């Protein structure tokens, strides 16, 4: 325990690629600063749609080999971000991508959405008690945009944070640890509007533009409590990490598209809402460091 870095950040995400799209700049910054950055990904993203035609054979309705392929994409993204501590919840393939809300795949036995929160949470409690993060980043209760695996990732992360702090809960998983601050991923609506206006004005390599509501976590500005501005180097690392998810993300300049081929801005400033813990900035001001106010 004593040889852990002084600052420790845990991120909980649903699928490979979510970490780079939401938090790539933040992860690159804290990894470069010597913090322990631990990413837990809950599924392999087996149900994703495949962008490059040359890899279409991996899709779940064909060879169903997308999961192992995305494990490698995620590993490449972690190299781009300089992050070395990455785990899959319960081990690779323990919980399967549930597909979009209402899909038949939601009901599969090992679908993440079809797993009891208290069945999945102990796997994360073990990671929390081992890495002892001061800061946890995950999604809001809607998962940012309603995807079942994102909602479930939120529930499991919040439950595991609670259980990890309880000394009476599963002492076999390590000594209790309370996470000081929990953040949800956000994008302020005015920032999203300005970025989409720029995309419309400049045009992009993509045939059409996504809607602001396609962006997860968009909220009114007054909900934002922290803002992490990427340096040019960390912004470049974020773009490279997103591009490493070749089957899921196409990156062209400051824009990207998912399998729907709709252009979206890459946000090089990342925004957060403090959901639990004490703000490290005076009232009305945004934190510029997720560890603000945290004592080692
Ligand atoms: Zn996702």
From TrEMBL:
UniProt cofactor(s): Zn(2+)
Cofactor note: Binds 1 zinc ion per subunit.
Region Disordered, residue ranges: 277-296
GO molecular function: N-acetylglucosaminylinositol deacetylase activity
Sequence positions that bind Zn(2+): 15, 18, 150
InterPro entries tied to this protein: GlcNAc_PI_deacetylase-related (IPR003737), LmbE-like_dom_sf (IPR024078), Mycothiol_biosynthesis_MshB (IPR017810)
Keywords recorded for this protein, A-Z: Hydrolase, Metal-binding, Zinc
Listed Pfam families: PIG-L
Recorded catalytic activity of this chain's protein: 1D-myo-inositol 2-acetamido-2-deoxy-alpha-D-glucopyranoside + H2O = 1D-myo-inositol 2-amino-2-deoxy-alpha-D-glucopyranoside + acetate
Top-level lineage group: Bacteria
UniProt record similarity statement: Belongs to the MshB deacetylase family.
Function: Catalyzes the deacetylation of 1D-myo-inositol 2-acetamido-2-deoxy-alpha-D-glucopyranoside (GlcNAc-Ins) in the mycothiol biosynthesis pathway.
Name of the featured protein: 1D-myo-inositol 2-acetamido-2-deoxy-alpha-D-glucopyranoside deacetylase
Annotated gene: mshB
């Amino acid at each position: 325990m004593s040889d852990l870095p002084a600052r420790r950040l845990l991120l909980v995400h649903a699928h490979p690629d979510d970490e780079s799209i939401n938090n790539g700049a933040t992860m690159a910054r804290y990894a470069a600063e010597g913090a322990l950055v631990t990413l837990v990904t809950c599924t392999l993203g087996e149900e994703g749609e495949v962008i490059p035609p040359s890899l279409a054979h991996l899709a779940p309705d064909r060879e169903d080999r997308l999961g192992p392929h995305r494990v490698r994409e995620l590993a490449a993204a972690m190299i781009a971000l300089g992050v070395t501590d990455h785990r899959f919840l319960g081990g690779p393939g323990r919980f399967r991508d549930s597909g979009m809300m209402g899909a038949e795949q939601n009901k599969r036995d090992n679908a993440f959405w079809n797993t009891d929160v208290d069945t999945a949470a102990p796997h994360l409690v073990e990671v929390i008690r081992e890495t002892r993060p001061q800061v946890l980043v995950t999604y809001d209760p809607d998962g940012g945009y309603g995807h079942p695996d994102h909602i479930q990732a939120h529930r499991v992360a919040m439950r595991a944070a609670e259980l990890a702090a309880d000394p009476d809960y599963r002492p076999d998983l390590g000594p209790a640890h309370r996470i000081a601050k929990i953040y949800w991923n956000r994008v302020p609506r005015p920032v999203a509007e300005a970025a989409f206006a720029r995309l419309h004005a400049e045009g992009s390599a993509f045939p059409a533009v996504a809607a602001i509501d396609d962006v997860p976590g968009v909220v009114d500005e007054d909900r934002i409590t922290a803002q992490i501005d990427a340096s040019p180097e960390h912004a470049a690392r974020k773009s490279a990490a997103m591009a490493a998810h070749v089957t899921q993300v196409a990156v062209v300049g400051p824009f990207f598209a998912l399998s729907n081929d709709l252009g979206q801005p890459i946000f090089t400033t990342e925004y957060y809402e403090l959901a639990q813990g004490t703000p490290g900035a005076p009232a009305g001001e945004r934190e510029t460091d997720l560890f603000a106010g945290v004592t080692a």
